[in-house]
Amino acid sequence: MNKSIKNMTELEGIVHAEGTGGRVVVFRIKPGFDMIEAIKKVCRHYGIKAGVITSIFGSLEKVTLMVPMKGLKFPVIEHHDPSVIVVKNLNVASGCGLVNTLENDEITIHLHIVVVLLDEGSSGFSKYPATGGHVADYEPAPCLGTIEIAIEEVKGLKLIRKVDKDVNLPVTFPVND
Questions:
Q1: Which element (helix H / strand E) includes 46?
Q2: Domains, the chain, ranges and CATH?
């Protein structure tokens, strides 16, 4: 366990903290606007520094997803590129994530989504399988038609995103205020 974060407890290998639910903010992102930047902007507007992205769906022009490769061995932080895929013209079928802060209090978004490629055929149903992964926040993910998102604020704790020395990857450390 990382001893540099105060008020963090560990229960048989589980890092945890307890908070309570707060406001729920629901919003829609218009075409052309970047999904991750829009989520951060809404969080800053409402003062949300810890939250749970409970629902996300819509369509994106493109998104960069990181998906661990079979047989991936830790540590990989030096080249955090286990398997990167860029998907274009897609339907976001589902997603969830966390609103975190870095140690400097900057908001960061940890988001995973499941996507289906949009089929240009007349049926509207995709002939392609669904795929998913961690949304790479270093590349734009512009909205195609609309993205609808619900975030529940978490009160009484902080969700700090930093590198965990055990896995050498950025992870969430829940910490009581």
A1: helix 35-46
A2: 35-160 (3.30.1330.80)
Separation between Cα atoms, residue 101 and residue 6, nearest integer Å: 15
Q: What is the DSSP string of 153-176?
A: EEESEEEEEEEETTTTEEEEEEEE
CA angle, 56 then 19 then 10, to 5°: 105
Average pLDDT over residues 70-82: 52
Question: Is the alpha carbon torsion for 171, 174, 175, 177 positive or negative?
Answer: positive
| Segment holding 27, helix H or strand E | strand 20-29
Distance CA 6, CA 163 (A): 16
Report pLDDT digits (tens) over 114-165.
998 876 654 556 666 788 889 988 899 999 999 999 999 999 999 999 988 8
Instruction: Please tell me the least confidently modeled range out of 15-19, 102-106, 110-114, 143-147.
Output: 15-19
Half-sphere exposure of residue 177: CA atoms within 13 angstroms, side-chain side: 9
The CA R_g of the chain, rounded to the nearest whole Å, is: 17
